[in-house]
Amino acid sequence: MKFIEDGWSIKRLTRRIVLTRAYQLSTAADEQALVADPMNRYSWRHSPRRLSAEELRDATLAAANQIDRSRQERSPAHDLRVIELRNNGPEAQRLSDIVSKSRKRSVYLPLLRTLVPSSLEVFDFADQGTVTGSRDTTTVPTQALYQLNDVFVRRSSLALAQSLTSESGLNDQERVNQIYLLSLGRTPSTGETERALAYLTEFETLAAQELADTFAAANAEKPAEVAVATSPEPAKATPELGTLGQAQSTAAVANPDDIEQSTAAIPEEVVQPRNAREAAWASFIQAIYGSGEFQYLR
Amino acid sequence: MSHVDTFDYKPQLQANDGKPGPGGGKLVASKFQFAQHGQTGTWVSELYPHVAKQVDKLCFIRGLHTDTPAHPQAVIQLHTGARIASLTRPSMGAWTLYGLGTENQDLPGYITVNPSPNFGGAVNYGSAFLPAHFQGTRINDSGFLPNVKASTVSTLQRKQLDLIQTMNRDLLAAPGAPDQLEGLIQSYELAFQMQGQVPELLDISKEPQHVLDAYGVKPGPEGSFARQCVMARRLSEAGVRFVEIRQPGWDHHNNLNKGLIGNAAATDQPTAALLADLEQRGLLDETLVLFGSEFGRLPTAQGPDGRDHNITGYPMWLAGAGVKPGSRTGLRTSLGLTPSRDACTRWTCMPHCWPCWVSTTNP
Lengths: 298, 363
Prior knowledge:
The complex is a heterodimer of chains A (298) and B (363).
Chain A: H1 2-5, H2 10-18, H3 21-24, H4 31-36, H5 53-63, H6 90-101, H7 118-121, H8 141-149, H9 151-165, H10 172-184, H11 190-210, H12 212-221, H13 242-253, H14 276-290, H15 292-295
Helix pairs in contact in A: 5-10, 6-13, 9-14, 11-14
Chain B: H1 11-15, E1 34-37, E2 42-45, H2 49-53, E3 58-65, H3 71-80, H4 92-100, E4 110-113, E5 137-139, H5 154-173, H6 181-202, H7 209-215, H8 224-237, E6 242-246, H9 256-280, E7 288-292, E8 296-297, E9 309-310, E10 312-319, E11 327-329, E12 345-346, E13 356-360
Parallel strand pairs in B: 3-11, 3-12, 4-5, 4-6, 6-13, 7-13
Antiparallel strand pairs in B: 1-2, 3-10, 7-10, 8-9
Helix pairs in contact in B: 5-6, 8-9
């Protein structure tokens, strides 16, 4: 009835739902309630679910203190003319480069047909070419591979590691506390703190042995580098989108059938900690992002 | 692919070179010599000498037709069976995986190599309304799969993974934990194993030199299809249920003859080697090979050296997996052009669930 009174507004309906007490409950469970209503029919808690692709990306950025909450002025694809967009062409590569480096909320990422941002793709993002009534929630190894290896996750982890380790007013226990608060919204238990500190010490020792050559090489190349080390960027790969317009003008005149269609390997950005200590902290933060507790609604 | 220049010999077309075609235009005979091969005496053109030696293994489906003479719609129909391309349906590979399940839990069940970036793009290996894990995993023709290369040394990553798993088990032990957590823990172990297995599987340099020579593997774009054939065999052997590989560039509105020579050279030897290799390993009887494209080309000329799209009366061939070797099915056409729709077999997505591979040669 309220829905009808509100003029069938889905937006108002959503607002009504998210403002209810039931919706705002956490997923915390107590044994008694679990026995009485294991399926949560009476909404005594928020049913656990994995975060959606966009939520997960935003949560990672927010937990790494990297998120830019400001509005996107306009889509990076704004200047593209109507063309059949190839997902391996120069426009696509520039767009995915912009998307990969973007720190805006996921809702502002450009969605072009067949071009799904890689940070959303593996977590059951709805394909923009089709109508999706309800998204799947799969649990597949490609998601784990993403959490272990993807440049976005590693860059975010390293950014937080660098900012925390360079802050001199903190001791390690306080740093662990900060990480837990930022990413899991709670402080660690005593056991968790001890485990974290032991992990950091062991990892640092191991990394110093295993990665000695890498650190030496990285520091020799860029001794004064402060930010995350990146490989040389392709020329003009900035969000100033004049380049997109230029690139497509050559592509647009060519017959699409004549264009080379093999997928070119895209050079990957290098995300490399500068020393064993940074490596240990980045690895710890990345482990938190990869944990079920981070990926599921709390 | 121009069927009248490759696998569909048309004596009447050869005899009527230059005469008016049935739908207007001027008939143009194939510039390539056809000859009979094998015990079945199947006609194959000189463009495919290696495949010709294996012709007794093949089962030709003739007189196929598709509904739209435009690449995007036809390619989507080829892959999903959807007559109306905008009604997204699951792809052939997704259905196969859905029906048969996967044979190797450590690998994706459906891999598409070098898929076309346009003509429907991901729709051609999508899962549509089937669950997302039935969709194809896309790799390029040098075997690149995102994030499968470990980002750090194995000892450090294992240590990190152990921490993740400890945290996950803690959470699992807590009351009311998410149901999928057990799956999450398993998926991390699988991912860690994939990092070891998949790059090795896709690294065709592991093959003995005589095998690489048989396929005609070489670097660069000319060797793309040969590399894909070797990858396809390795993936199928390892238990990947459905593999698709692709050679682009068959849209010969012009440059028909030179273009065909180049493309046939790129696909002939690898395709024949794939069939021989599968047979020699005892895999051919349980592997279905499908070779085809979204439509054929007209028997009439387009410009001085071209043929336009032909959506009626083109063939594909199958091999292995219990199909009758050396057989032909579907109606014969006199000019490689079927005038009546009733006479053709519309290409619909294979309803049967065989372990299979598809080798499509899109435009």
